[in-house]
Amino acid sequence: MQPRALILHANGINRDLDVAQALELAGAQPEILHLNQLRAAATPWDQYQMLVIPGGFSYADALGGGRLFAIDLNAWFSDQLQAFIAAGKPVLGICNGFQVLVKAGVLPGRPELKTTLTFNENGHFECRWVEMLPRSQKCLWTRGLQNAITCPVAHGEGQFVFSDPAGADLLAEQDEIALIYAHRGQPANGRYPANPNGSIHDIAGVCNPAGNVLGLMPHPEDHIFQHQHPRWTRGEHTGSGLQLFINGVTFARQF
Predict the structure, then answer these.
(1) What is the largest distance, in Å, between two alpha-carbon atoms of the chain?
(2) Quick check: 43 pLDDT over 90?
(3) Which CATH architecture has domain 4-252?
(4) Distance from C-alpha of 206 to C-alpha of 199, rounded to nearest angstrom
(5) Alpha-carbon distance 155 to 123, whole Å?
(6) Per residue in 97-147, pLDDT tens?
(7) 31 is an active site residue
(8) 3-state secondary structure of 92
(9) Which SS3 state, helix, strand or coil, does residue 20 take?
(10) Which of 95, 139, 151, 207 is catalytic?
(11) What is the residue extent of each domain of the chain?
């Protein structure tokens, strides 16, 4: 069975087609729908088995990355979103989509933790390739993954911060830090440029307590073919992000 994947679109989102291609290669049937289309047609969300919010600059990042998208999502689709998550279906937010999930209150999914994604520690936009290490076995998207993922980042607001730094320790203890920034197979340990934004514990992605919702800043959908690697002509082509999507699609087949 091909799971149906709903890809949410809003003005300024620009990675929706890349996500659709990754999902299709992983075995899903993707469908891109603008928020206005969903609202006008009253499209039922229960006909989909996966949900993805892709990257870009929704609403031109007015009021901060992902904030306006999050407001619309909660205003129009709060019940559908919460039902989707409660059902245990795979949900993925990439870059701007991660920002949306955080600012909509979905991630990290612990009401006692106050978190946000804010300006990179170095104060400027980062657009280049990075390395991530899968960490969480709770997160269905990263479960079983052993190899590093290499893919681009393209963000100015990617620093994941907590009102209380002890919150980061709690996520680590609960196995909810899904992905961390790395360099040559080792944690970045907060060092720039391996850690592009200064996130505590080198956080590149986190999941909710149930493990079905993942948010991450880098773009695994932009490394699903060998020739996309910037050094593939020199024989370097490892670190594909496709397996992350395969994990999500495999899990979605049960719904």
Answers:
(1) 50
(2) no
(3) 3-Layer(aba) Sandwich (3.40)
(4) 12
(5) 11
(6) 999 999 999 999 999 999 999 999 999 999 999 999 999 999 999 999 999
(7) no
(8) strand
(9) helix
(10) 95
(11) 4-252
CB under 8 Å to 95, separation ≥6 — which residues? 15, 54, 55, 56, 153, 154, 155, 158, 216, 217, 218, 219
Q: CB neighbours of 190 closer than 8 A, spacing ≥ 6?
A: 198, 200, 202
H or E element at residue 96: helix 96-103
Q: Which two tokens stand for residue 236?
A: 């370097």
Residue 228 phi/psi, 5-degree rounding, is: -80, -20
95 is catalytic: yes
Q: Which two tokens stand for residue 110?
A: 């612990």
Q: Are 100 and 59 in contact (CB under 8 A)?
A: no
Q: Which of 57, 46, 2, 55 is nearest to 24 (CA)?
A: 2
- Which entry of 201, 219, 223, 229 is annotated as an active-site residue? 219
Q: Which of 157, 176, 221, 229 is catalytic?
A: 221
- The CB density around residue 18, as the number of other CB atoms within 10 Å, is 17
At 236 the pLDDT is: 87
